[in-house]
Prior knowledge:
The chain is of the alpha/beta class. The chain is built from 23 helices and 13 strands.
Amino acid sequence: MVAPLSAWPWENLGVFKYLLYGPLAAKVLYSWIYEDSIKDLWCLHILVICALRGLIHQLWSSYSTTLFLTRNRRIKPEGVDFKQIDREWDWDNFLILHALLAYMACLIFPSLDDLPLWNPKGFITLLFLHVTVSEPLYYWAHRYFHEGYLFTHYHSLHHSSSVTHPYTAGHATFLEHLILCIVIGIPMAASIMMGCGSTSMVYGYVSAFDFLRCLGHSNVEVVPHEVFIKLPFLKYFLYTPTYHSLHHTEMGTNFCLFMPLFDAMGNTVNRNSWQLHKKISSDSAKNGRVPDFVFLAHGVDLTSSMHAPFVFRSFASVPFSTRIFLLPLLPVAFLVMLIMWAWSKTFLVSFYNLRGHLHQTWVVPRFGFQYFLPFAMEGINKRIEEAILRADRIGVKVISLAALNKNEALNGGGTLFVEKHPDLKVRVVHGNTLTAAVILNEIPKDVEEVFLTGATSKLGRAIALYLCRRRVRVLTWIVGKWITPRQQSWAPSGTHFHQFVVPPILAFRRDCTYGDLAAMRLPDDVKGLGSCEYTMERGVVHACHAGGVVHQLEGWTHHEVGAIDVDRIDIVWKAALKHGLRPVSSM
């Protein structure tokens, strides 16, 4: 049986829960359109404050997942996986609750419309009430929620997130957020009742409250330890992300809201708080753990560039598809593309762990169309070469080139870099051997004739040769990068188009079927994976990515560049299956 007030009243509404903001929005619009001025000004303020609070959480989320900035400051090195993302999907439920309660307060106390914009006395009163009322109230409520029934039926939900994230701050039960609303509301309500409240006080307090909550759950240490050396007393008045992270690791300590002073008074300070904070803060200038494998990807187009985890975490956790909410952001994406073209270098975008090995995805700051611009090819090769040399310098074992980064016309499938740097210790892999294996194993064993397009490419040639060895008759059809609807019309009805080129064939024929790009599912024991690779399903990666993974797990010491060795197709396929990678059937 569900505990009282543990579930959210609107948890089954999905995206329709945002209609609960409707009465507030309707009242504002009605006043704006049909009246001389917005009479219920606080309805507008509530909506703006909710948007501001959502923005604060979003900005903290973006910062904490911008790994090229934060990788050396992470407190817990593990990644946030799909299960945690799904649990925290409705992290913003509390914003709706607080908006509804604030609206009720406005109806009960219409005098709120007369609040001045600014009153310095209100900030002093607010700070005093926060320290003397909100902090101890939260501290003791938090301690009680860690006991028996309250923890099991309520607070355990919040602690189900093994790696904290700014959205974890909002991930709690209905009852807990009711109490949190009281904690936030008392200083503001009391200040207003004492006649020293102001609109700026409400905006400032709520924003600061959420900012500090996100800071504590960010899993990124941003507070320099030198601050506490110069001002030792400050460590009792401001918690750090490390301090709160220890609470999630060792739950019997560090209960405070923002001020460790109350933990010190309650004898619940974790003894490792300051030492761990100093260590993480000091180590931020050092290089972190070296990855065993790197997948070197690139941007596809402007819209898909917003599929990165540091843009929208929830959007990145599902396969990419064009969404309407992305369209207003296209000008921003275009501006970022120009900036990256001019100044950016290869950067880290995501990672996961597989059987003790760290696997990372680095991105060359170039988009698909740029690879077809003759004047841009030299610059792209330079970026790829820099990434390979950096991987070699820090001790990466295998680096796999994605899609256009191994384009034959660009660098001969990676041959350019291996020949230019014969002493590379890092193994450069194009992954096309496994890509060919995936495609070949999708073709039914009893097939006697295959109609093949793209036979002049590395993959097309290898597939044709392999099929001929199996005594399969291969008919070739040489087309360009894009196959037109008219060209597709020549294929007989019932044809299945296997995809192995970039860009993929567009589906024009209703009487034919179209496969996805060759891919494989990562083993079940992968950890910390929380983003999808372009249009792939969760846990599925492109075959060239999987090829690099197999190369690293097998410990092979050769480069895999240039033409595909047909004799190794079966070897690589069996190795992939041995390590738990599974094919993703496209039929």
